[in-house]
């Protein structure tokens, strides 16, 4: 049975993050923080820290608002800072800045009930993997589909294990059509993930035509990841309606 998100605020986890944020701020930063939340910005460094802690809404923020606020805080940190936070959260601290950022944000999903924890050695299924793809933040928007491949590979490798993720795998013997990412053994059924970033109606129609071949190969274990940056709302609605008729598991990554 697929995991059903049931977000519940984890106050201890939130306090852990908040302590890290506060400890890394200068006196001037804390003063600005206090102004933003309508509190007196004056006082010593320790007084300002205590006042932020006493008046911030971060600890009691509704579950659906907490992830975006956490992203707002995290995006200002350096790679070294994020590596330190990973250590504080008992997470691996290897990789570039964007990878660390996504790893910490994924932990938010785990701790607050948005994402399932996959036991070591277990295989993830397509419905759960779709949740991870919907959750993971796009740090930089690209102009082409291929611009998203590196970060997507890093995310899939972090979740499923690098040995489970294969790029540009032919979907059948004798065909030139390839799947952007295959999760699982290359010769096994696996999960297929295709990235589409259409720019016009012709590309939408071509993508919809390819979907039938992907479905023939993967069935319900096919996931289509759409970046709709260059199409309008009506085109996106048409595309998603057609995909729904085909029962395609679809994840749409909107620009912020």
Please supply descriptive tags for the structure shown above:
single chain, 256 residues, alpha/beta, Rossmann fold, 2 domains, five-stranded mixed sheet, 10 helices, 5 strands, 11% strand
Biggest beta sheet attributes: 5 strands, mixed
Rough outline: elongated
Mean pLDDT: 94
Query: How many beta-strand elements?
Result: 5
The CATH class assignment of the largest domain is: Alpha Beta
Low-confidence stretches: none
Largest sheet, spatial ordering of strands:
1-2-3-4-5
Estimated helix fraction = 40-55%
**Number of continuous helical runs:** 10
Examine the coordinates and then state which fold CATH places here, giving the name of the CATH topology of the largest domain. Rossmann fold
Give the SSE string. HHHHHHHHEEEHEHE
Number of domains: 2
CATH architecture heading of the largest domain:
3-Layer(aba) Sandwich
Beta strand %: 5-15%
CA-atom Rg in angstroms: 21 Å
What kind of oligomer do you see?
single chain
Computed structural class: alpha/beta
Q: How far is it from the N-terminal to the C-terminal residue, by CA?
A: 31 Å
């Amino acid at each position: 049975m697929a995991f059903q998100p049931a977000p519940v605020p984890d106050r201890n986890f939130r306090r852990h993050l908040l302590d890290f944020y506060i400890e890394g701020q200068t006196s001037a930063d804390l003063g600005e923080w206090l102004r933003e939340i309508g509190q007196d910005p004056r006082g010593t460094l320790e007084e300002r820290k205590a006042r932020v802690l006493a008046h911030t809404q971060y600890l009691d923020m509704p579950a659906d608002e907490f992830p975006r606020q956490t992203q707002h805080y995290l995006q200002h940190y350096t790679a070294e800072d994020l590596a330190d936070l990973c250590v504080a959260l008992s997470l691996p601290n290897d990789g570039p800045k964007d990878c660390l950022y996504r790893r910490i944000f994924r932990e938010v999903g785990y701790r607050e009930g948005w994402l399932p924890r996959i036991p070591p050695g277990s295989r993830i299924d397509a419905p759960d993997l779709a949740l991870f793809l919907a959750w993971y933040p796009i740090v930089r928007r690209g102009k082409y589909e291929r611009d998203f491949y590196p970060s997507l590979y890093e995310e899939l490798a972090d979740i499923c294990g690098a040995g489970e993720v294969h790029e540009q795998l032919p979907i059948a013997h004798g065909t030139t059509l390839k799947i952007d990412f295959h999760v699982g053994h290359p010769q096994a059924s696996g999960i297929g993930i295709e990235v589409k970033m259409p720019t016009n109606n012709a590309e939408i129609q071509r993508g919809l035509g390819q979907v039938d071949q992907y479905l023939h190969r993967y069935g319900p274990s096919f996931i289509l990841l759409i970046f709709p940056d260059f199409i309008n709302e009506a085109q996106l609605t048409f595309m998603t309606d057609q995909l729904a008729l085909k029962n395609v598991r679809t994840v749409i990554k909107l620009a912020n």
